[in-house]
Design brief:
The complex is a heterodimer of chains A (186) and B (604). By secondary structure, chain A is an all-alpha fold. Chain A has nine helices and no strands. The chains are: A mainly alpha (186), B alpha/beta (604).
């Protein structure tokens, strides 16, 4: 598999297909993160599209200090936050509905889906109930696996803030999910 | 009670983000505090729960390449816009990164690092003065844009250069192209005001033609909107709630898919949920849902945000003849049923267009029989093209069958399949269907030339074997072939395409070899024409006048609900059935053509 740096170099030389490969490589991962962050499949789809377009446009500014996906994620994250601020009144309805009433696209099996459905919905509701900054940092850490340093860079906060914010987010979610957590611990 | 600093340390410990001394501190805490151990376990379990959340994928309903292609098209337009703006020096912000590389060279001189939202683009970026040079340049850019669009992806590498060359002095390009994009897509995505939080993030949407539109669109009806059209919007019914988004080009040039608002009684797009069917049923008292369809994992595709991977829009594997009451049609209950089953549908199809063209041709012919046929295929005959995964189509057919048994909304029903693997077979067979309706609804089936149990090849690669078993059926009830197709019954039939029309369509004047008709067996619908299936009610008996609903062989089809009257609502506490095995993103799409004859309600 061609590494990101090579594809970026090729794209900068005019090979748009190389950028297309980057899109294929990261579209699902980014989309999943944005769905959980935004709580709307439709908006996440738009954000991911816009993020890739912006990434393409700004590719010459990418210096490679961070991984391409990290850079891309930050673009998408900022777009999502901007869109969310613009559309907040609409999101509250759609957010709740989509976070709790719509099945995801990949499930292990129908049986698993039935068994996990309630817990998944609880987790998604719990995530949705968090503040934006807490939800964002949880997704960055737990789903995306970004390091504290990367998160700090993305959010433009000190690493110590990352740790404290992440802790608060976890404690809040823990409260939301106490029921689920107790089942897991048993 | 663990204090805050220790909580944070536990968080860092969990993430392996502690210094060695902090780690020692936590390990000491864990040795001495059961509460700390408990908290750490909980945090670990929570992490696992979060990481086990189902993954959403953007490529469920389309290939990854299709999405990437769309991105590149948009990006190139964006580059074009920004490139022209940069050339004229009218970019309002300094520090704007150079346009990306579409071409042999790339500017890599920007000092910006990660600054994703520092560069607004879109309407409002340019001042748009009245300078004649600017106007000329704008015209040049528009022409270049059109050229770019015409050249297509294959010429992408070459096109931008010439475009950029022509558009160096085109300050209005941004606005012009953005306007064109908005006009093309009808997205009406409002541009944020300059300086607003969203301004930096705003990119004018440029959605390909096959993508959705947000504005409800009323399609031109196939025929003059006369008595047959439902009254959802005071006009012709809208096309399907879902965008077909076929990845393959449609063979007829007149087909354009759109996603429009559903009928008033139908749940809004994207709102389907496990609880939704009850509300839907309440809104539409007839056409019961026997099996409240749960969202399957490719629901997003069905909702229209993704493309249906295999829809071709020209080759239905099923043709379903439905006699529907005028009241049911006009109130939109049929289309509501499609919506509740998450089945994509539309009115205008290549097949329909071809039929209409055929009707127009034959209308002018002196042949009396042909004229009669055309007249009968008038406003009381509607064609609805639908496509969905196999399980949903099965459920829909079950719904219709139970409705037919009750003779409320659905008076009678015939399932049929085109004969032969030809893509055009459905179109051609539909002519046969219309002929049957014209005489009137009751001279099916025609004589068959079937005599063996030979297993025939599938009709097309799209036919899911779970639904269509292409099998030559013995002539089970040839003696009743001339009899009427009675109301309240349902039947599975084969259709023999109009071979003369095949020859005409192919431009083939030579003799057309006759093929044997092939029946299909819809196991899910419980319709069995073969007398070799003891224990099942042969369709011939149904045709002979029995109004009893056929046995539903699939236990998961909620037999109680299947036997319910059309007029009775599905009880709110109806137990949702276990979801059908979830369709994979690559599951073939079942395409069906519903030939709907609008008839008065029974007893009127």
């Amino acid at each position: 598999m061609i590494d990101d740096a090579t594809l970026i170099t090729d794209a900068l030389r005019g090979n748009t297909d190389a950028f297309g490969q980057l899109v294929c490589r990261y579209q699902d991962r980014l989309y999943n993160a944005m769905v959980h962050l935004i709580g709307s499949c439709d908006e996440a789809y738009d954000v991911v599209q816009d993020a890739f377009v912006q990434a393409f446009v700004k590719l010459p500014t990418f210096e490679g200090h961070a991984a391409f996906y990290t850079w891309l994620y930050r673009i998408a994250f900022n777009l999502a936050i901007s869109n969310r601020r613009r559309k907040r009144p609409m999101l509250s309805v759609e957010h709740t509905r989509e976070m709790t009433g719509e099945e995801p696209l990949e499930m292990a099996s129908p049986d698993d889906a039935v068994q996990r459905d309630e817990r998944v919905q609880q987790v998604q509701r719990g995530l949705a109930a968090l503040s934006e900054e807490h939800r964002a940092i949880l997704i960055m850490r737990e789903m995306e696996g970004f390091s504290y340093e990367t998160i700090a860079e993305m959010l433009d906060v000190p690493i110590g803030t990352v740790r404290s914010r992440l802790n608060r987010a976890r404690m809040q979610l823990r409260e939301q999910l106490k029921e689920v957590m107790q089942e897991d611990v048993k | 009670m663990i204090d805050l600093p220790h909580e944070e340390l536990l968080t860092g410990y969990l993430d392996d983000e502690l210094t060695p001394s902090e780690r020692e501190q936590v390990e000491e805490l864990l040795r001495t505090s059961a509460e700390a151990r408990q908290l750490l376990e909980e945090l670990r379990a929570m992490r696992e729960t979060l990481q086990a959340l189902p993954r959403y994928t953007i490529s469920a309903g389309q290939s990854g390449e299709a999405f990437a292609q769309r991105i590149l098209q948009r990006a190139e337009r964006e580059v074009l816009v920004q490139g022209t703006a940069a050339a004229t020096g009218e970019r309002p912000q300094t520090g704007k990164p150079s346009p990306p590389a579409i071409g042999p060279t790339a500017s890599n001189t920007s000092e910006n690092t990660i600054a994703p939202n520092t560069a607004p683009s879109g309407p409002g970026t340019f001042n748009g003065g009245s300078n004649w040079k600017k106007l000329l340049a704008a015209a040049a850019v528009l022409a270049a844009s059109i050229t770019l669009m015409v050249l297509g992806p294959a010429q992408r590498d070459q096109a931008p250069h010439s475009v950029a060359l022509q558009s160096r002095q085109a300050p209005e390009a941004n606005t012009a192209i953005a306007s064109r994009d908005l006009a093309t897509t009808n997205l009406a995505k409002p541009a944020p005001e300059a300086g607003s939080p969203g301004a930096a993030a705003f990119v004018p949407m440029a959605v390909p033609e096959m993508e959705r539109t947000a504005t409800p669109t009323i399609p031109a009806p196939m025929t003059a909107p006369a008595p047959g059209w439902p009254n959802h919007a005071g006009a012709a019914p809208p096309e399907g709630v879902f965008a077909p988004g076929s990845t393959a080009p449609h063979q007829a040039g007149t087909f354009h898919s759109r996603m429009v608002s559903p009928p008033a009684a139908e749940p809004a797009m994207g709102t389907f949920s496990a609880a939704a069917p009850h509300a839907d049923v309440a809104a539409a008292p007839h056409l019961p849902v026997t099996n409240p369809a749960p969202m399957s994992k490719n629901s997003a595709a069905i909702r229209g945000m993704r493309e249906v991977p295999h829809g071709r829009g020209v080759s239905p594997s099923l043709v379903v003849l439905v006699q529907l009451t005028e009241e049911a049609w006009q109130s939109g209950r049929f289309t509501e049923l499609l919506g509740r089953r998450h089945i994509a549908w539309q009115f205008s199809t290549p097949a329909a267009d071809e039929l209409r063209a055929r009707a127009e041709r034959t209308e002018s012919q002196p042949d009396r029989n042909q004229s009669t046929r055309v007249q009968q295929a008038g406003p009381d005959l509607q064609l609805v093209y639908a496509w969905a995964p196999a399980d949903r189509m099965q459920e829909l057919l079950s719904d219709l069958q139970s409705a037919a048994a009750e003779q409320k909304d659905v008076v009678a029903l015939v399932f049929a399949a085109p004969d032969g693997p030809n893509d055009r077979a459905a179109t051609l067979a539909t002519g046969d269907v219309m002929h049957s309706f014209a005489e009137p609804f009751g001279h099916l089936p025609r004589s068959r030339e079937t005599a063996t149990d030979e297993i025939a090849p599938p009709f097309s690669p799209l036919d899911p074997p779970s639904i269509v078993a292409a099998k030559v059926q013995p002539p089970a009830h040839d003696d009743k072939a001339k009899g009427p197709f009675l109301p309240g019954s349902s039947e599975t039939r084969d259709l023999q395409p109009d071979r003369a029309f095949i020859a005409e369509a192919r431009g083939d004047d030579g003799p057309v070899e006759r093929q044997r008709g092939r029946a299909i067996r819809l196991e899910a619908a419980g319709v069995e024409t073969s007398p070799q299936q003891p224990g099942r009610q042969p369709a011939a008996a149904t045709m002979a006048g029995s109004a009893a609903p056929p046995q539903m062989p699939q236990a998961q089809s909620v037999p109680a609900a299947a036997a319910e009257s059309l007029s009775s609502l599905a009880p709110p506490d109806i137990a949702p059935v276990p979801p059908s095995p979830a369709a994979s993103p690559t599951e073939p799409t079942t395409e069906a053509l519903f030939v709907i004859q609008i008839v008065p309600s029974p007893g009127k």
